[in-house]
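S.,

Sequence below, as promised.
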Amino acid sequence: MYGISKRVFDLCISLIALTLLSPLFFTIALIIKVDSNGPVLFREKRIGKEGKTFEIYKFRTMNLHTLDGSTENPLNMKDDVTRYGRWLRKTSLDELPQLMNILCGEMSFVGPRPAPYDQYELIRMREEMGVNNLVPGLTGFTQVKGHDFISNFEKVAFDSYYVRNRSFQLDMKVLLWTVRYVMKTESVRVDFE
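The prediction came back faster than expected:
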């Protein structure tokens, strides 16, 4: 029942959120286009359930530095972040497009954050602990209990705890913790790639 209720929750809430937040999506898209050249959305390959790759969506927060103008600078240096990109990151609004990933079933509201496809050590460690068997999340136990720039070992330790103790009740706690941190404008993410 946990798996079914989790998917129903994800489907209903993501659909409602996308509908209610559509004016905000439009406003952010307009700000991004006025602020800098390039696409509104940034897409990146991430590792999903069972190790399959998928494209994660974010609002673009960085200036373009490639000849074709289609991707962001992978170095993620502070000076490469756009003027409004800093605000989007601070408020975590850049993550809102992942509601589309949730609606499609590629992600859940709560689960291990999907690792970038080229973080081979983290992917291997997660595979050994069964973390990659889960649908990745918009937020997760690691994000609310850990801190930025923690080691892969610490990330996997928190992820493993979630694997062993996951429940609808724990998911709701993680969501509440996430809201609390975001409202304080403290980052709850550890994946600024």
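The first strand starts at residue 41 and ends at 47.

Coffee later?
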